Amino acid sequence: MDNVVINIKKGADRALAESVSKKIDSPIVEGLGEELTLLFDAKGVSLAGYGLTYQGDFENMVRRVSDGRLAHEMLVRAVKTTKEHPVAIDATAGMGEDALLIAAAGYTVTLHEQNPVIAVLLKDALRRAKKNTVLKDIVSRMKVVEGDSSLLLADYIDEVDVIYLDPMFPARQKSGLINKKLQLIQRLEPPCTSENELFDAAISAAPGKIIVKRPLKSPNLADKKPNYVLNGKAIRYDCYTF
User: Fold this and answer.
1) Are residues 141 and 107 in contact, defined by beta-carbon separation less than 8 angstroms?
2) pTM
3) Among candidates 118, 106, 86, 133, which has minimal Cα distance to 1?
4) Most exposed residue of 13, 154, 159, 161, measured as fewest CB within 10 angstroms of its CB?
């Protein structure tokens, strides 16, 4: 990747760093690169650039999945099921916070992420979450698969109960309102521009339900009207049942 370099610190998983360097064709350097740097150190993997540093961390989700709060999450209400051992795909995983909520609701979740740098950050966040007593059982039901969801879903043959789509990184927000995670991730991955293909691929996988996260006043994904909608203050979940 032209705008990413690799930096390996003391205590890092050097084999992983070197493997990532080869995979994304990015050099290993001393110090920080001119744009983005994928940092490997004793704590794990982080992304630095433009005066910001970000490391995925599911521990800030602990309160949302415990003490009775989980049932009040709008996404959890959207995926609610009586089925034992339900299966979901988060086709636009990003850093996996929404997938964590789905897994906390009892699902086994496959997370699709096409950007290899984001996938590395996500896998590292899941690795560290397995050490948390509250999160370890939840993240044990989460698996990352790298690739383009439009292709992965089109060839999907296993039964799936829910496919979750959040095909937007919030370029809709002013830069001053976007947190540092999204400021850096936007440098890696632009907003989804193949919404129609993504939705069609999700339908082809024949799930029981497709759930689409949208800004509250945005148009329907691929101009397809949902069966029902759950509205929040800033976002909504469009629910398509089959």
Assistant:
1) yes
2) 0.92
3) 118
4) 159
The predicted-structure confidence for 33-63, as pLDDT tens digits, reads as follows 999 999 999 999 999 999 999 999 999 999 9
Buried b vs exposed e over 152-162: b needs ≥16 C-beta within 10 Å?
bbeebeeebbb
The Cα 230–Cα 174 span in angstroms is: 25
User: To the nearest whole number, what is the mean pLDDT of the chain?
Assistant: 91
Which value, to the nearest 10 degrees, does the dihedral of the CA atoms of residues 59, 60, 66, 68 take?
-170
Rounded Cα–Cα distance for residues 109 and 100 (Å): 8
Tell me the DSSP string of 63-124: GGGSTT-GGG-HHHHHH----SS-EEEETT-TTSHHHHHHHHTT-EEEEEE--HHHHHHHHH
Show Cβ contacts of residue 141 under 8 Å, excluding neighbours closer than 6 positions. 103, 107, 108, 109
User: Which helix (DSSP H) or strand (DSSP E) does residue 24 occupy?
Assistant: helix 14-24
Residue count of the chain, please give it: 242
Residues 209-238 have pLDDT tens digits of 999 999 999 999 989 999 999 999 999 999
